[in-house]
Amino acid sequence: MDDRTEAAKEGLAGAVPVRRNTTALHRRFPTIAHMRQHARRHVPHFVFEYMDGGAGADVGIAHNWAALDAVELVPRYGVMPSLPPVDVELFGRKYAAPIGIAPMGGPALAWPGGDAALARAAQRARVPYTLGTVGGITIEEAAKLAPDVLWFQLYRLARNDHALGMDLVRRAEAAGAHVLVLTIDVPVRTTRSREAAVGLGRGPFRPDLPMLIDMLCSPAWLAALMRHGRPKFSNIKAYAGPNASGDEVIRFTREHLGGAFTWDEIARFRDRWRGPLVLKGILHPQDAGKAVAMGIEGIWVSNHGGRQIEALPPAIDVLPAIAAEVASRAVIIMDSGIRSGLDVIRAIALGAHATFAGKAFLWGLGALGEAGPGHVIDLVIEEARAALGQIGAHSLAQARSAVTRHPGAFVFP
Ligand SMILES: Cc1cc2nc3c(=O)[nH]c(=O)nc-3n(C[C@H](O)[C@H](O)[C@H](O)COP(=O)(O)O)c2cc1C
Predict the structure, then answer these.
(1) Contact 118, 377 (CB under 8 A)
(2) Any residues with CB less than 8 A from the CB of 156 and at least 6 apart, and which?
(3) Cα–Cα distance between 345 and 343 in angstroms, integer?
(4) In 3-state terms, what secondary structure has residue 145?
(5) Fewest CB within 10 A of the end CB: N or C in the chain?
(6) In the predicted model, what is the mean pLDDT of residues 17-43?
(7) Which of 55, 255, 289 is nearest to 156 (CA)?
(8) What distance lies between CA 364 and its chain's CA centroid?
(9) DSSP 8-state symbol, 93
(10) What are the pLDDT digits (tens) for 344-372?
(11) What is the Cα 287 distance to its own chain's centre?
(12) What span, in angstroms and rounded, lies between the C-alpha atoms of 384 and 100?
């Protein structure tokens, strides 16, 4: 039995050591789907609706999952003495696996203290961790927790000639973030019906009676809330005034953040940021080509996990066309729907260099609290190695030449 106690080395105030008994964890949560199932009962109902829901009636999420499930890999046998490693190099830095943590605004709602737990798990496992503009810890805190794997995601904050966005970039650079990710796929705020129905998404967080009852029915989540306090937009706080309350920071953020970067604005960030720059939310090969022609090093193929509008194509279905356009000139990243190591290998086989996941990590937090993200990473790595072994690929590079059947593949005119 592998019984590991991992005290947080440079923890934030209130961090609790993460104790992981991996054999017992595998029995309780043999897949990420099991963690999702448990998270549904383990966190308050309004929290689960926030972390699990998508745009409209969740059709975009369903399409993402179905599109990945439909990708078949044809095995070659008699060639596999042992399971291959899955380590990967991205932008000149080595990572343990082609899975990273996507930027998210809500880990601290999924599980109070969730941002720090994600950062620690990524550092421990050596996989990329992307802190979001509206994440729950500051860039500087994230750099302490995840110094070797930190990426930073920026939303558009255009007021005063992008003063705030540019300052966040300065802070990311000073803190040693390795990669800057510009998210371009939120030109508008759309309705996520499950969020709206539980009273989230508009204005400051004001728990009503049903929410309070929900919280009382989730004692472990509530205890984490007591330890870590209410979720906050930590990076933005510095700009909202020295004495700004949590609600004022939320209001300030809503006033300043919005719209999608234009190509001219992207060019300005390209000039400013000296490290690798990634555009997140690309779904058209021509946009990928345009970005690469501007000197962007990474193309993040994504439909925002089905959270924008339901008619966006699944990222996996546009991936081959985008890879055909730019894979020899840029790092191709894919997210939206990744729920297993097998999904990761499907994406690699169709042209991605690496994948990221959002909801899978939130389900991990929701099911297991601080120990969740580490278990998600362990499962994904184990499943990815098994998938390579099964199809007879000795490496991720070899998986790229696997024979596949991909019924949803987009053909662009
Ligand atoms: C609760 C939640 C909050 C998110 N917040 C952000 C964000 O602040 N910035 C961003 O670029 N993407 C955000 N995303 C999108 C993720 O980065 C990622 O693209 C998406 O979750 C991938 O799909 P998956 O959830 O199916 O893995 C968010 C996703 C979720 C689930």
Answers:
(1) no
(2) 165, 257, 258, 259, 260, 261, 265
(3) 5
(4) helix
(5) C
(6) 88
(7) 255
(8) 12
(9) E
(10) 999 999 999 999 999 999 999 999 999 99
(11) 22
(12) 13
2, amino acid identity: D
Pocket probe for ligand 1: among 304, 308, 339, 376, the residue whose CB has the most ligand atoms within 8 Å is: 304
Q: How far is CA 70 from CA 140, 347, 348, 384, 407, in A?
A: 41, 12, 15, 17, 7
Based on the number of CB atoms within 10 Å of its own CB, is 222 exposed (0-12), middle (13-18) or buried (19 or more)?
middle
The DSSP line for 241-281 is: -TT--HHHHHHHHHHH--S---HHHHHHHHHH--S-EEEEE
DSSP structural state of residue 56:
B
Whether ligand 1 lies within 6 angstroms of the CB of 103 is answered as yes
Cα first-last separation, the chain: 55
Contact 57, 326 (CB under 8 A): no
CB distance 355 to ligand 1 below 6 Å: no
392 C-beta closer than 6 A to ligand 1: no
- The token duo for 324 is 């055909």
Which atom of ligand 1 lies nearest, measured to the CA of 130?
17
Looking at residue 173, its amino acid is E
The CB of 101 under 6 Å from ligand 1? The reply is: no
Which tokens is 210 given? Answer: 């049903």
User: 338: Cβ below 6 Å to ligand 1?
Assistant: yes
Residues in the chain: 413
Which numbered atom of ligand 1 lies nearest the CA of 109?
Answer: 1
Q: What is the overall mean pLDDT for the chain?
A: 93
Active site residues: 304
Residue 234 tokens, joined: 């930590």
> Cβ distance 67 to 316 under 8 Å?
yes
CA dist., res. 68 & res. 396, Å (int) = 18
250-256-257-260 Cα dihedral, nearest 10 degrees: 170
Strands (E) located in 265-412 = 277-282, 298-301, 331-334, 354-357, 403-405
Q: Which residues pair with 73 in a beta bridge?
A: 404
Q: How confident is the model at residue 242 (pLDDT cuts 50, 70, 90)?
A: confident
Q: Looking at the CA of residue 305, tell me the nearest atom of ligand 1.
A: 23
- Tokens 């609290």 sit at which residue? 369
Pairing mode, strands 129-131 and 3-6: unpaired
Distance 1 CA to ligand 1 centre (A): 35
Query: How far away, in angstroms, is 339 Cα from ligand 1 center?
Result: 14
Name the residue at shortest CA distance from atom 7 of ligand 1: 104
